[in-house]
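In response to reviewer comment 3 from the previous cycle, which asked for concrete evidence that the modeling workflow produces usable outputs, we include below a single protein chain processed end to end. The sequence was submitted unchanged, and the resulting structure tokens are shown without manual editing.
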Amino acid sequence: MKTITITFLLVLCALAPANAQEQKPAATPAASGGGAPIESNFRLIGSLSGSKVLEQSGRLTIADPRTVFYSPDDKEIVVYFTWEGPPGQHHFEGLWKNPAGKVMMTSEFDYKAEHRRFGAYFKMLTGDSPTTGIWTLEARIDGETAGSHTFQIATGQRPEGAANAPTRRMLNPSEIYNRGAAASVLIENINAKGARRSVGSGFFIGPGKLLTAFQVIDGAARVRVTGPQGRLIEATEVIAYNRRQDWIVLKVPLDNMPALERATTAAWAIGDRNYVLDVPADGNRVLVETTVIGKQTLTAVGNRINIADRVNRRAVGSPLMNDFGEVIGMIGGSLIPGAAFNEDAAFIEGSGNLGDVSRGTLAIPIDLINDTAANATTIDGLLKAGQFIPALVSTPSVLNGNLARTINKKTDPPQVIDEKSEFSPANAEAVVLITWLPREKRKGQPAVRVYDIDNQLISETLNKKKITVTPNKLSYSLWELNFAKLQPGIYRIDVLLDGDFVWRTFFRMIE
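The workflow returned the following structure tokens.
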């Protein structure tokens, strides 16, 4: 076999210089001891291989990501790693292993990482007759295995159609911000009295096609869009929607609004760097650099992207973009339709542990959006079809509410026992306790309704007698419920007073 030349470059940021390194012949690895394995300090975020590495907008990218290379056409192979680990001085090694598993060359050097995230690429000059088969590049940092990448070397000419793909240009943060902001608008949720209930965001994905989260418009009597120069446009037509997946495409005739380009299917991976436009206040958009830290799979509604950063609720409906300014997702993806987006959130209790994530924010993958779905309607049509969750009254009569296993009726006031939001057929008994403290005197018949996650009424329990609730005076209502016949899933409980929705919570049934 002819000699193979291998080089190694470490890049902490795109402008970091290459570091001195020492090339050594392969050495036989020392036998490992019998102790328990130690968790690595370095987390591999990802790896890519190709024939060329480029610097764009101060960052590095592989020009033609692939895992199969052809001799003699491909003269060099580049493998790029990205890690997360402790900053400081580290010793790096790269071990190239041929198809027989033999280490052919080791490259090593010392480097001081200034940040927790850093990257490196290895370059191999294949020569005239490299060994064909599956190769592996193993990376080590401070003696710890820090990931590996496999690729194939084959003989013959590169097949037609396997030529290097055109290199997409990575955008700098300013370009990503400008592109996203130009296509984005604010969306107002207006109630029947003409008052603004809440504000969210949306962005154009085609001429007249405004994408936003369903939760942004849920319960609205009217939907109003704030376009360029503060122009207000009422959106009444719906092109397509999916309430469970939490997206809706509105028809908004705003001329000359640029549309954002969608990324290809599965164009994101754990550890990817992405950008979102947060909206701390009306008229204020800020670019947030974030990372994909996980995904949440929901059987009935598909995946959710979990990003590392939290954003303001005005940013629900904003685009999640990659380094190329392409949309990979949209901020939203509520796990419980109708839970805690608008002003009702102050009166919705017990839903945080069911419909929220413990870290970061959820986003809806862009490939879930089907703007050609045959379910066009209107905002009023959604309301009449029962797709909206009724709004809670703006003047609350409820001091607090509780969903629990049981209650101690001997105490004054009554005390709930084992407050919970999860039940099973074996433990299906529950109580709802409402403490009334209205701002104005009210008289009416209280009721409790149970709905499924699709807003379909399951049951209603009415009090036999009307009650009177008085300002500055505490009073109580109690309902005993049994959930034994409910299927596994998430459900909603609404408390009504003379037809007005005054309190809401959610619970889960398990097997």
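The radius of gyration is 29 Å. We consider this sufficient to address the reviewer's concern, and the full set will be provided in the supplementary archive.
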